[in-house]
Amino acid sequence: MAIRILLVDDEPLMIKGLKRTLEQDGYETDSAADGEEALKKLNASHYDLVLLDVMLPKLSGIEVCQIVRETSDIPIIMLTAKGEDMDKILGLEYGADDYITKPFSPTELLARVDSLYRRVEMHTPKAAAPVDDITLGEFVLNLRRRTLLKNGKNIELTQVEFQMIEYFFNNPDTALDRTDILEKVWGSNYFGEEKIVDVNIRRLRMKVEDDPSQPRHLVTVWGMGYKWNTK
Questions:
Q1: How far, in Å, are 50, 67, 219 from residue 96 at the CA level?
Q2: Which helix (H) or strand (E) holds 134?
Q3: What angle do CA 5, 6, 8 make, to 5 degrees?
Q4: Is residue 26 packed enough to be buried (19+ CB in 10 Å), middle (13-18) or exposed (0-12)?
Q5: Burial of 130 by CB count in 10 Å (0-12 exposed, 13-18 middle, 19+ buried)?
Q6: What are phi and psi of 145, to 5 degrees?
Q7: What does the radius of gyration of the chain's CA atoms come to, in whole angstroms?
Q8: How many whole angstroms from its chain centre is CA 231?
Q9: Which DSSP string corresponds to 161-218?
Q10: Longest Cα–Cα distance in the chain
Q11: How far is CA 82 from CA 29, 87, 104, in A?
Q12: Which of the pair, 73 or 153, is modelled with greater confidence?
């Protein structure tokens, strides 16, 4: 089956270009011109990935991303205009998995879409896979159900967040530099910036730490990167 992508942008020429690029590469596409239409389509149909512009009529891309993340971990790539640094950060902190800055080349678009979808597919457990729990203190990570429990309570994670936590749980009390994390989670061919790691770390701390401003588990190793502290 073809991979279905929802394109959300209010510029007809942008939608036309995205559709042409993606469909020539074998993807199936659908489109929405504003935030409300995007939510209606996401509720009515199945999509494998969303390309979501930040600036949209009716509901912004940030608002759409936040609403979608309340019920779904579908991969989301934000489309941002050049210089919209805060929009990039906000989009990621509300649950986007990646962003592309306009203008971008067809090569970069396809690389980002292919990389994100392949990561999700690679980390999606098969039905026959055995239950495999990793327990670290009050946290239990289940690799088959793709759940993270803290003191028995479920923590909702996006696909990228789960992959990051899985990497930390497989390497507890080990300093992991940003380059290692970027390559493990986003892939060696990732086109984006290294700071995407820092944004996702902040997002994870909001979910796993009692006091994100003074993290006890997901700690910074200055000059190196981050580690999951079990002590």
A1: 10, 11, 23
A2: strand 133-136
A3: 140
A4: exposed
A5: exposed
A6: -80, -10
A7: 18
A8: 29
A9: HHHHHHHHHTSTT--EEHHHHHHHHH-TT--S-THHHHHHHHHHHHHH-SSTTS-SSE
A10: 54
A11: 25, 10, 10
A12: 153
Question: How far out from the chain centre does Cα 204 lie?
Answer: 12
* Pairing status of strand 147-150 against strand 139-142: antiparallel
Q: What is the pLDDT of residues 120-150, one digit of tens each?
A: 665 555 444 455 789 999 999 988 888 899 9
Query: Which one, of 77, 89, 31, lies nearest residue 191 by Cα?
Result: 77
Q: In the prediction, which pLDDT does 136 show? A: 92
C-alpha span between 131 and 144 (Å, rounded): 5
Task: Tell me the pLDDT band of 12, cut-offs 50, 70 and 90.
Answer: very high
The upper half-sphere exposure of residue 135, i.e. CA atoms within 13 Å in the direction of its Cβ, equals: 5
CA distance to 21, 59, 60, 168, 229, per residue, from 113 (Å)? 11, 24, 21, 25, 33
Which residue has 């159900």 as its token pair? 145
Cβ atoms of 175 and 199 within 8 Å: the answer is no
Token pair in block for residue 65 = 């991303």
Contact 90, 66 (CB under 8 A): no
For residue 46 the two structure tokens come to 């199945």
Q: What's the pLDDT band for 63 if we cut at 50, 70, 90?
A: very high
Taking the model in full, what pTM does it have? Answer: 0.74
Judge contact between 47 and 76, C-beta under 8 A: no
**Type of residue numbered 94:** Y
Token readout for 128 is 């026959």
Q: What is the DSSP letter of 97?
A: S
